[in-house]
Design goal:
The complex is a heterodimer of chains A (119) and B (192).
Chain A: H1 3-13, H2 22-30, H3 32-51, H4 62-83, H5 88-118
Helix pairs in contact in A: 1-3, 2-3, 4-5
Chain B: H1 9-17, H2 21-43, H3 46-63, H4 73-93, H5 100-105, H6 115-134, H7 137-148, H8 153-160, H9 164-182
Helix pairs in contact in B: 1-2, 2-3, 2-4, 2-7, 3-4, 4-7, 4-8, 6-9, 7-8, 7-9, 8-9
Classes of the chains: A mainly alpha (119), B mainly alpha (192).
The structure holds zinc ion.
The site of zinc ion has 6 residues of chain A, from α1 and α3.
Chain lengths: 119, 192
């Protein structure tokens, strides 16, 4: 049995998701190289799970963009249900303008908060 | 840094489902950095991650009524984000090539990490991030969702639009590639 052929099988067992067959187990019991690989897969899994504790802060402005997008979707929905299709284009324009205004205000708020935290 | 939300996430979800938009906005505030982190891990690109996050919250907002209260909101967001990232990367790969150098040069923000942990694990962590960056997106998605975020195989398969067995094959292949990258062998291939 080639160690290389066993590698993906070892990868499958690292989180207890799969088990080795009998012949494979017997090989690993006697093979230092495969045993070392088992340890390496465990280290890899630990390092992967450790990434979960990190938060990557997005560059400023993302929150405002998300909220503006939702606001716009909300306005469109409200308008659709009230007017059921009439004069959508005109009011759609209004909704976009409102959303843009809100986004501007929120960008400003985010910036000033960041400045305060930085200082 | 303490989260701004005064209200509990489950209360916010309940209020948002009843049509309270400010409650949904508060949910976004409380969870968007976490969602962005996943999107960034999946795409390896700041701009793609922003697009994915925006799309994910829009979908969440529209689909909130379908969200079952017994599931975790964050897990639900992870699933939507995974689905959006898969769609986004599929669309993107048809337009332009992924620029690995550009992706690798984006800095990671993690100012609060324990200095001792840094000393012990940063070398492995940094090499792991580089190795993840080097994986094809379809392999990276599965291994990130499973090994970092611990989503069930079934959920991963569903959001990526593949079978559960295909998801597992990709997972094991991704782990092997990462292991090969992190722990290169000195000796050649030999039978034992
Ligand atoms: Zn072996």
């Amino acid at each position: 049995m080639l160690c290389e052929e066993l590698s993906e099988a070892l990868a499958a067992t690292v989180d207890g998701d799969a088990r080795l067959g009998r012949a494979e187990r017997r090989h690993v019991e006697r093979c230092l190289r495969c045993q070392a690989e088992v340890v390496q897969y465990r280290k890899l899994l630990r390092a992967m799970r450790q990434l979960r504790t990190e938060v990557i802060e997005p560059a400023p402005g993302l929150l405002a963009e998300i909220l503006a997008g939702i606001e716009e979707a909300g306005e469109r929905h409200a308008i659709r249900s009230v007017l059921s299709g009439r004069r959508i284009a005109y009011l759609g324009g209004l909704a976009a303008a409102t959303a843009a205004g809100a986004a501007g205000a929120l960008v400003f708020a985010t910036r000033s908060r960041r400045t305060r935290l930085a200082g | 840094m303490p989260r701004e939300s005064a209200r509990d996430v489950s209360e916010l979800v309940a209020a948002a489902r009843d049509g309270d938009r400010s409650a949904f906005e508060e949910l976004v505030r409380a969870t968007h950095a976490d969602t962005y982190t996943l999107a960034y891990r999946l795409t390896g690109d700041e701009e793609d991650a922003r697009d994915v996050v925006q799309e994910a919250y829009l979908r969440a907002y529209r689909g909130l009524r379908r969200f079952r209260g017994d599931a975790q909101f964050t897990t639900w967001m992870y699933r939507i984000t995974a689905n959006c990232a898969a769609t986004h990367l599929g669309r993107r790969s048809r337009h332009r090539h992924h620029d690995l150098d550009e992706a690798a040069s984006v800095p990671d923000g993690h100012p609060d990490r324990d200095p001792q942990l840094r000393a012990d694990g940063d070398d492995l962590r940094d090499r792991l991030l580089a190795a993840l960056d080097g994986l094809p997106p379809r392999l990276r998605a599965v291994v990130v969702l499973r090994d970092v975020y611990e989503l069930p195989h079934e959920a991963i398969a569903a959001e990526l639009g593949i079978s559960e067995s295909a998801a597992k094959v990709r997972l094991h292949r991704a782990r092997k590639k990462l292991r090969d990258e992190l722990f290169p062998r000195r000796e050649g291939r030999r039978a034992v």
